[in-house]
Structure formats: structure tokens, C-alpha cells
Amino acid sequence: MAGVEHTIGWVGTGRMGTAMAQRLLRQGCDLAVYNRTRSKLDPLVAEGAKPVETLGDLATRQIVFLTVGSSEDLLEVLVGEGGLLCGEAVPSIIVDCSTVSTEASAEARARAAERGAVLIAAPVSGNPKVVKAGRLTVAASGPRDAFDEAAPYLAMLGAGVTYVGEGEVARLVKLCHNLFLGVVIESLIEIVILAEKGGVRRQDFLAFLNDSVMGSLFTRYKSPSLVNLDFAPTFTTKLLRKDFDLGLAAARQLEAPMPVSAVVHQIIQAGIGEGVGDVDFAALMTVAARAAALDLKSEDAQVPDGLEPAGI
Q: 58 in the Ramachandran plot: left (φ > 0), alpha (ψ -120 to 50) or beta?
């Protein structure tokens, strides 16, 4: 395929990392993959990825993508024992698609620069189903020339890539995005609960909302979960709390008041306290329902989510 000319490495093959890496494989990329749990590589190996035993085995790849769970994981992958930056060779460009703090990203960038590598911060918006539908979006920051080199591969991941500037500004963009995500889901949940308490079926209210100017791709693809109480995790409540912790810390540092986000942060914490931390964040609906003395039941309805696979 035109434009596929670099050797690519991939670190982290959880649900999200696997879905993203599959898109590169299906568009002809030469991809080597690493994960601490070797069995999680199997779906990618079945599609032609080259498994490696250690992080160091990816050091000769020209561009290496990372999808890890936390700031600590990012630094461990780069400079921990046997890390990507610890051998004689290092990748030219490291593209980190994780959601981490700006401080960890800055440290990772500095450590990469010490070894002659360039870090592109490229956090993403979406979940595995969004990836498969070709709707993933990326915000990227770092040196423009390195971004331009990696951009064709970032574009393969989904619907759009936005270069937002130098340094760590993409991290702030992603944190702002996820603060908005939490505020929107809580607002959506509250109005759905209000409508149901007044005698309106959830499926009917959401059908009306999704057809109105207030509807969105987000409200549509969360509708099946809210109607049928399917909280299989796409993005857990604990992960949302992590991003609120980071986002509100950034707001304090920048002296930007976030009163609505601060309230939602406490609602998220209450949800975790009530046992919905490890399921999809849409399960915050159960917290709002209990507060409204509403007994939620699945409506067992066929509700479109607006996400059709992109065929890649």
C-alpha cells in the first residue's frame, strides 16, 4: 500500500491496543508486537503481526506505538528494566497513544531525547467498537517533522488526526475531552432518569433525543447501554476517575475553575464506592436511579448505536 514504508512496533495489546494495531495490519504495515501477557498477542499474530519476547526486540523498529494504562506504565516501558530506551538501539519515533499526565509525558519526552529518539504524544478518543467502526480520533503534539513522518500511520487508526502543537498540549486536549465525556454522560443519565420517572420509556426518550439537534454520535452509541442496562466495559468508571483526577489537577495548575466537572468527579467517586468501578462508566446510571428511588429494569429493546464497522 502506498505510504507504508516504515517498520512499526506496538506495545500493549489490551482491547484497545489490539483493535488499533489490527487497523495497521489490515492496511499492509510491517508490524511487530509486544505485550507482557504473551497470549494477548494471539489475535494479532493470526493476522500477520510478528511477536517479540522483549521490549528491546522492538528497538530497531523505526516507529513504535504505545498503548499503556498509566503514567507509571509509560515510564516503565521506556526506561524500566529492559525498557525500550535502555539498549544500544532505540526507535526513531515513539508514538504514545495512552492517556497520561503532562508531567509523565514531559519526562518520557526528555528521556527519549537523551537517546536520540522523538516522542509524539497522540492520545486517542474512542473505544474498541469505535476503532472497528473507523471513528477513532487522535490529537497529537510534538516536533512537527516527526509528526509528519508518523501521520500516515496515525491516520490509518480512524477518522481523523489533529496536530495541536509542540510539547505536551495533546495530553491536555485529551484530558479536556474526557472531562467533557464525564459531564455529558452524567447529564444524559440524569435527564433519562427524569423522563423515566415521569412515565417515558428510556428507548423512546433517547430515540427522540438522538433525532434532535441535541443528539450526537455519543448519545446514540450509548443508547443501547442505557436502555438495556448493558454495562460490559468499554471504558470503566475507574479509568474515567483517573482522567478526572488528571484533568482537575491540570485545571488547578492553570487556575481554571471547573465547578461542574468537580461535582461530576464526586459522582464518579460515589459510583466507585457503590461498586461500579470496574464496569462501563454508563453504569453511573444506577447511582442516579437509586438517588431518584427508581427501580431500573432492562427494556430488552433493539436500539441502534450508529456504529457500523468500517470494513478494515
A: alpha
Do 238 and 146 lie in a common domain? no
Q: How far is CA 129 from the centre of its chain?
A: 11
Report CA dihedral (19, 187, 252, 170) to the nearest 10 degrees: 30
Instruction: Tell me which residue range forms the domain holding 148.
Output: 7-167
Q: Are residues 252 and 117 in the same domain?
A: no
Strand 118-121 relative to strand 124-125, pairing: unpaired
Q: What pTM was computed for the model?
A: 0.88
Q: Render each residue's pLDDT in the chain as its tens digit; 312 residues.
A: 445 789 999 999 999 999 999 999 999 999 999 998 989 999 999 999 999 999 999 999 999 999 998 899 999 999 999 999 999 999 999 999 998 888 999 999 999 999 999 999 999 999 898 999 999 999 999 999 999 999 999 999 999 999 999 999 999 999 999 999 999 999 999 999 999 999 999 999 999 999 999 999 999 999 999 999 999 998 999 999 999 999 999 999 999 999 999 999 999 999 999 999 999 999 999 999 999 999 999 999 999 998 876 666
Report how far residue 208's alpha carbon sits from residue 210's, in angstroms, rounded to the nearest whole number. Answer: 6
- Asked whether the CA dihedral 42, 44, 45, 47 is positive or negative, the reply is positive
